[in-house]
Amino acid sequence: MDLLTFVEQDNTLERSLPAFRSGDTVAVHYKIREGNKERIQVFQGIVLQRRGSAATETFTVRKMSNGIGVERIFPVASPFIEKVDLLTRGVVRRARIFYLRQAKGKAARIKAKR
């Protein structure tokens, strides 16, 4: 075993996130620290991609805020993630759905799995 993978394996905290993939709509409850106060902020949007593995795995979530697309990258192993709620499953045929960035209006919708 490689020394780097041994250290990553040792420092990875076990997290019980739901099984989500690109196209799913999730709500990420994220801890925000402002001064000495801490609060939880919910970032709800569509998962564009999941990348990496083990300690370096991340996922990108995109939402529309006042007509402007906002994307945020969350590390899976982050201690600031309180929980991730899976709201809807989307039907997509790709692992990375970056085409959503250019889509507007009804074209930016993703069909929900029943």
Describe it.
With 114 residues, the chain is mainly beta. The chain has a domain at 25-103: SH3 type barrels (Roll), CATH 2.30.30. Helix content is 8%, strand content 43%. The protein contains 1 helix and 5 strands. It has one helix spanning 3-11, and strands at residues 25-34, 37-51, 58-65, 68-75, 81-88. A 5-stranded antiparallel sheet has the order 4-3-2-1-5, with no helix packed on it. It is globular, with a radius of gyration of 16 Å. The protein starts with a helix and ends in a 26-residue tail after the last strand.
- Look up the CATH topology of the domain at 25-103: SH3 type barrels
Question: Which outline best applies?
Answer: globular
Given as residue ranges, the uncertain stretches (5+ residues, pLDDT < 50) are none
Instruction: Please give the number of β-strands.
Output: 5
Structural class: mainly beta
SS strand fraction: 35-45%
The average pLDDT score comes to 90
Give helix % range: under 10%
Number of helices: 1
Give the biggest sheet.
5 strands, antiparallel
Secondary-structure element pattern, one letter each? HEEEEE
Straight-line N-to-C gap:
43 Å
Strand neighbour order, sheet with most strands: 4-3-2-1-5
Q: Which CATH class of the domain at 25-103 applies here?
A: Mainly Beta
Q: Mind telling me the C-alpha Rg?
A: 16 Å
